[in-house]
Design goal:
Layout lengths: L1 H24 L2 H85 L4 E9 L7 E4 L12 E3 L4 E8 L4 E5 L6 E6 L5 E7 L3 E7 L10 E4 L11 E10 L6 E7 L8 E5 L25
Antiparallel strand pairs: 1-2, 1-12, 2-5, 3-4, 3-12, 4-5, 6-7, 6-9, 7-8, 8-11, 9-10, 10-11
Length: 292
């Protein structure tokens, strides 16, 4: 089929060449009769030739437009990839800036804390009980041992429960199995701070006549070997007394923000370094702020 079309096209071209050659070679007198035939014939074939030319021009223009679209798509993909890369880089730099600010705060805290400490990154949380424990990237090789107190610049976090060579498990103050001896800073009334349900903490065994009230600051009493005296634990939120016990109790808003813990400070000892004050500079937050 294609061969027959090619042959017909070839024959048509030969016919046109012969016709034009004849018109050129014929004498002028002989051309007049042919002109009578050639002029109408030329007008007839001019229409399809014009159509073919327009089709060719249209296809050429369409091809150029298609190629432009392909090139534009390629450039757009390159720009999209570059934008995605820049977003990733921006997020990375944001994280580095945030980490640098946190470590600057921790370094300043260490400089004003009279006790030997080590900063530890939080590398894990208990998925079954978010308020019970966390894992830190410091262990025996860093001088960490079980029972050491764990704090942040804002307040008490908990104690080291288990120690490995390179990491440790910290039992949070929010855990009901953890207890810290504490006192109310204003009244000097002593009690025990323990975790309760829903990731909160309570100060128990307050004297019946204690004048503790909402807004009072609760600090460590220094009666155990985990925390020195005066480290902020939290703020009294509400005081209550149950009829079944002679003691009062107080719900606390803890100072440390347990929902955003990324680094903590481990107290390597509770004895102040030579010639230094015995208190850490820990900020007091307003009533109602806290991490529990």
């Amino acid at each position: 089929m294609f061969r027959s079309r090619s042959r017909a096209k070839k024959a048509w071209k030969i016919f046109l060449i012969l016709l034009l050659t004849g018109l050129v070679l014929f004498p002028l007198s002989a051309k007049e009769p042919l002109n009578a035939i050639a002029v109408p014939f030329t007008e007839i074939i001019k229409v399809p030739l014009t159509i073919v030319s327009l089709i060719e021009q249209t296809l050429e223009a369409g091809g150029k437009a298609l190629q432009s679209l392909i090139d534009l798509h390629g450039k757009n993909q390159v720009l999209t990839d570059e934008l995605a890369r820049l977003k990733i880089e921006h997020n990375r730099l944001e994280e580095l800036a945030a980490a640098a600010e946190r470590y600057r705060t921790l370094f300043d805290f260490q400089q004003h804390c009279p006790y030997p400490t080590v900063v530890a990154q939080v590398i894990g949380r208990d998925p079954t009980n978010w308020h019970r424990s966390l894992v830190i990237a410091k262990g025996e090789r860093d001088g960490v041992i079980a029972g050491m107190g764990v704090i942040t610049p804002l307040g008490v976090v908990g104690r080291v429960l288990k120690v490995n060579r390179t990491f440790s498990v910290v039992q949070l103050i929010l855990d009901r199995n953890n207890a810290i001896t504490a006192l109310v800073q204003r009244t000097r009334d002593e009690g025990i701070v323990q975790g309760v349900e829903n990731g909160r903490a309570m100060m128990k065994y307050l004297p019946p006549l204690a004048s503790v009230k909402s807004g009072d600051v609760v600090v460590t009493s220094g009666l155990d070997d985990r925390f020195p005296k005066g480290m902020v634990i939290g703020i009294v939120n509400r005081v209550e007394k149950k009829t079944a016990t002679p003691f009062k109790s107080a719900t606390l808003t803890l100072h440390a923000d347990f929902s955003t813990l990324e680094e903590v400070v481990v107290l390597l000892a509770t004895t102040p370094l030579d010639g230094r004050d015995s208190e850490c500079s820990m900020p007091h937050k307003d009533d109602g702020e806290g991490g529990a």
